[in-house]
Amino acid sequence: MNEVKRFIEALRRKRTKEHYKKVLGRFVRDTGKDLGKINQDDVLDWKTEIEKTLAIKSVQNYVNVLRSFLKFNYGDSAVSKIKVPYEFKIKEVPYNLDNIREIIRVADNTKLRDAVAIRLLAQTGIRLGELLSIMVEDINFTEKVIKIKGKGGRERFVGIFYEDTLNMLKNYIKNKKKGYLFTITPRAMQFKIKEYAKKAGMKEEDVAKATCHGLRHAFAMEYLNVGGRLEILQKLLGHSSLATTGMYLSYTPKVIMEESAKVMEKIKF
C-alpha cells in the first residue's frame, strides 16, 4: 500500500514509526477498511467508537495519527472536519527553582550529555520529543538559537540564554557537524530525570512525580511569575493557541494579583 509506505518512511524516529504502524493496524482491525481508501468520515466514526473504551489521551493520540496520515497523503482538505478531543491539564509540578538548580548542578558534575539535555529542557521549555529531535545542524551558535521541530510540523526557535550552557553545548558537540544531538531514548531520559532529582535531595514523593515534561511546566510558570509576556511564552512553548498557554495563569496567581493591583490602582473605586 503506497500511501502507508510513504507516510511511515517520512517519519524520522524508529519508535514513532512503530507506534504509528500499531495505531494504523488497530484502525484496520476495528473497521475492516482499506487505509488507501478511507476518508475523514471513517476516522470520525472510529473516533466515536474508541471514545467509549479509551481514555481521552489515547483517543487524542490515535485520532492524531489517522489525521496525520490523511493530511500527509491528501492535504488539509482531507482533515477539515476532524477535531481532536482536547483536555489541557497540568499535573502537579514537583519542582521549584532551588531544586531545578540543584538537579542541574548534580548533572553538571556527573555527565556532560545529561547536563546539556537537562539544561535545555529546563531553560527553554521544549518538549522531550523536541529535545530528542534536535539535529546538530539545527543549532546556530552565532545567533545563540536552536531550531525546534514542534507538533504539527511547526518550526520555532528557542534561545540559549546562558553562556555556561552555550559553552557546555559546544564542548558536547565538539567537531560533530550533523546528526542527532542526543541518541538517548525517551524512557532513558525520563529515568535520568528521576535519578538526578533523587541525587539532588528531593523528597521521595516528588522524585516519583519528576518528569521531563514537568520541567516544561516549571519553565512556563517561572517565566510568567517574573513578568514574562503570555504571548511570547506561547511562541517559546510552541502552542498554536494562546488559550492553551493561558492555562498556566491558573497556576501563577502572583501574576494575576500583580496585574490586577496595577489596574485597580488606576480605577480607585
Task: Provide a descriptive summary of the structure in words.
The protein has 269 residues and is mainly alpha-helical. It contains 14 helices and three strands. The protein is globular, with a radius of gyration of 21 Å.
**Which outline best applies?**
globular
Q: What fraction, in percent, of the residue positions are helical?
A: 55-70%
Continuous helix count: 14
Q: What gyration radius follows from the Cα positions, in whole Å?
A: 21 Å
Q: Give the percentage of residues in beta strands.
A: under 5%
Unreliably modeled segments: none
Number of strands: 3
What's the SSE pattern?
A: HHHHHHHEEEHHHHHHH
Largest sheet: 3 strands, antiparallel
SSE class:
mainly alpha
Distance between the termini: 70 Å
Mean pLDDT, to the nearest integer, reads 87
Strand order of the largest sheet: 1-2-3
